[in-house]
Amino acid sequence: MAKKPSTLPLNLREPAPGTPLYRWLYEELRLAILSGHLHPGARLPATRDLAEQYGISRPTVVTAFEQLQSEGYVDGKVGSGTYVSQTLPDQFLQAPKAASRPAGRRRRVPLSAYARRLQPLRRADSSRIRAFRANLPALDEFPMALWAQVASRRLRHVPAGLLAGGEARGYRPLREAVAEYLNTSRGVKCSAEQVLIISGVQEALNRAAHLLLDSGDPVWMEEPGYPGAAAAFRSVGAQVCSVPVDSEGLNLEAGIQRWPRPRMIYVTPGHQFPLGVTMSLSRRLSLLEWARRARAIIFEDDYDSEYRYAGRPIPALQGLDKASVVIFAGSFSLVMFPSLRLGYVVVPPDLVDIFAAAASVSTHHPPLLDQVVLCDFIQEGHFARHVRRMRQLYGERLEVLKEETRQKLGGRLELRHVEAGLRTVGWLKGGVSAEHVARAAAERDVEVVPLSRYAYGRSRRNGLVLGFAAVDEKELRRGVEELARVLEVGE
Predict the structure, then answer these.
(1) Which of 105, 179, 317, 349 has the most CB atoms less than 10 A away?
(2) Does residue 304 or residue 23 have the better pLDDT?
């Protein structure tokens, strides 16, 4: 492009190779405006003159001018020409300099009572999987290629209706698939009408807390128990009432004696978090009957009961409920992969409308495409096959952990009997502190969580939570060896 002599106050650089001429001219004029070479109110050259001067077509210049005008850099006046705008858009993108304030007098935005009660949950980092990372499935064993194939096939034929969104309760075929799965595999008694698709159990807890609890309402929590549930209940001002767990699960008699009038009861009966106890059938029936008489609602968190290695499966608490006092929640995060962020909540028939109304207010309608792919994944049988394969894999890893612990940690760490789940508890012997062991293990690149971190007061349980599902056999053996060295030093 030959540049012709000009008396215009512009110093435009040569365009970079491959840059469209209209884009080059737009960027050069914009830079001239922002740098002050073309000041507010200045008249730009006529498009015909600019095209002749730089040897480019007039439509190219017109396109660049139109782009500048659409973004607010110039104003066009019919019969008069094009002028640099008096107020430039980039001025709005710059934060004004704040007036200096005396120390200690910075203005704070007032927070609601709800905001002041919020407590962030601690999350594990996303670094490499090491012994004994808990609360994760074997992510490297998920059939991602198969998932991508199902997703690709579905996304090639997405009807326009799905792109428009859906109802607040979630994708109807997925709700039907979840209801069928829960009825056959978990002993849950529900219809698709009672199922809501959500992001996971934490959302279900938050939704139930806001809809069913008022400030000051007492809520039974297992001791030790899941911190995320306590955080959800405290966020609405509820009173968290710790109830001990024994060999049969939540100690009903202790709860009645300490806190006789709870509004809600939070339990993990299939696989107690974090102790791993399965609530006995007699305890389940007693809890349901007492909740009916006390007019309390039960929140059943079924977070990882798909993976059972020993003992006979016991039907979900919800499946034994004849008085509609149980809210049942589960997630696909620990079965498939956490970033999927899909779960479900099954609510009693008389609560369906209010839960759906809350969903419509908070999200209007949830993301649908992942729900559609998950539905296909379930209906084509891939989900059931994945669960069976992972159950076998996790069982094998559990056996490795048990054998290595028996050989190298005998007398210093005793694993409790594991019936289900992705983790277990190891009881420390000899009075060594669990917190001390956790700190020393971390220095050796080993993760263990003291049981006391799941307590709501001073815990006398001296144990460690160890995950095994996400950790391969080689890393499990290394973790046990490092833990043995830690315990040898601590003796």
Answers:
(1) 317
(2) 23
Which of 153, 136, 303 shows the shortest CA–CA distance to 226? Answer: 303
**Is 113 part of any domain?**
no
CATH code assigned at 207: 3.40.640.10
Spatial contact of 208 and 187, defined as CB atoms under 8 Å apart: no
CB atoms under 10 Å from CB of 106, counted, come to 8
My answer on whether 389 and 435 are in the same domain is yes
Residue 145 placed within a domain: no
Separation between Cα atoms, residue 459 and residue 338, nearest integer Å: 30
Question: What confidence tens digit (pLDDT) does each residue in 118-137 have?
Answer: 877 766 565 678 889 988 89
Which CATH number does the domain housing residue 458 bear? Answer: 3.90.1150.10
Domain final residue, candidates 68, 92, 116: 92
The boundaries of the domain holding residue 367 are 159-380
For residues 125-154, one letter each, b for 16 or more C-beta atoms within 10 angstroms of the residue's C-beta and e for the rest, the string is eeeebbbbbbbbbbeeebeeeebeebbeeb
Residue 399 has pLDDT above 80, yes or no: yes
What single letter denotes the amino acid at residue 165? G
DSSP string, 68-134: HHHTTSEEEETTTEEEE-SS-GGGGGSPPPPPP--TT----PPPPHHHHH--PPP----S---TT--
**Looking at this protein, which amino acid is placed at residue 218?**
P
CB 387 within 8 A of CB 244: no
